[in-house]
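In the current project phase, the collection of sequences with tokenised folds has grown. A sample record is quoted in full directly below:
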Amino acid sequence: MRSFAGEAIILDVFDLQETDRIVTLLTRERGKKKGVASGARRKYSRFSGLLQPLSRVQVRWFEKEGRELVRIGDVDLLRSAHRLQEDLEGILVGAYLAEHLSEMIQEDEAADLPFRLLDSTIEALLAGVDRDLAARYFEAWMLRLSGIFPSPLECPVCERPFGDRGAVLPLRDDALVCPDCAGAAGGGAAGLAVGPEVLDFLRRVGGERLVDLATSPPAPEVLRRAEELAREVRRRFLGRELRSYTVMQETLAAPA
């Protein structure tokens, strides 16, 4: 049995049998890890209060060859995300961020950049950054780190900057192209139209920290269009929608 230790962010926690919990971790050096915290549900467990979603922890775990689940050992809390979990919207947004990592990060692969992205986004949310802006920033960067987010800089066909022309995500292509090239491909400019304001926001996402972007955020309509683009790219890649996104949309849209 091999022992490992390092910083991790807790992605989710589920009850297992009567006394244990299954914990999914995002580690810097070894990617996603899913393990059993034995006795975590007991009243006086050594894990009491430590296994909260989106908390950053120092953790030791043990791996045995042939077993899918690792065994969670010592856990020390480095930063709690409790304040983000105090209301329903915060819980839903947190689950949405975490599911991206659960779906897109592999085990035993270094995940320093995704770890830093999630960690900095949580820090910004705890500092009071607008949740809508944080979610749009996070999803664009997460898709970019996965290598599937189209460039907002220039058309790959004619190599001209998009500028004020905007762009189009064609129905059967994964790259943004200018309206002229989209039309030349046949069928007019069919696809998802992406306006210049959205492209400008996406360029800012690539060059600014979230806390800096929050000082002069885009209009809500720009965020909606950026969300639409990210949703389409994500669905094409996964072949389905994230469950947390569907739940969040349905819940927040429901009348009070």
Observations:
- The mean pLDDT is 93.
- The chain has two domains: 2-80, 114-253.
